Amino acid sequence: xxxxxxALLHGVPVSLAxxxxxxxxxxxxxxxxxxxxxxxxxxxxxxxxxxxxxxxGIPPVVWLFIIFFGLxxxxxxxxxxxxxxxxxxxxxAAYLAEIYRGGFLTLPAGQDxxxxxxxxxxxxxxxxxxxxxxxxxxxxxxxxxLVSLLKDTTVASTIGVRDVMMxxxxxxxxxxxxxxxxxxxxxxYILLSIPVALLARKxxxxxxARTSR
Length: 213
What we know:
mainly alpha
């Protein structure tokens, strides 16, 4: 079983790379999405909400098939790794936009009004008043989502990404269908998730200390 666990370690860099790129892409794209959701005009709100509902309503594996076998086979050339990162990133954007929106909803209504009274522009209010507070309250759910994303990226193996899950499947087939590789994978994913949780707690504590000064 130790040999199996060591063999699975070769897939960790790819799994972490897909997860990290997807999360980074989602974190960036989630910002304009949440701003559209909070827009005073109905059209941006409708577009953002439609995208979010579609992105969250379609299973990740279907998204990867659409991007890799559809988009990647005709319009542009995408490797399995690129298609997986892009697909999971687009899904992440929808979830993180909703996390950001939840962070905005927790803010007292007087915060924005006070900033307006001080003559701050909308961009300054967002940057200096609202965004830091939204980030602080969003850290825990973002960390939870990151752990979930790490597990969801296992579907990347279905389009040929040589991540942990693909190696697990290969090890199981080589062992004649044994379940030991899957146990090793479960332990490995738990070990990978623990640092994320600890980092989230540290960042949350630091942001709380900074905002309480």
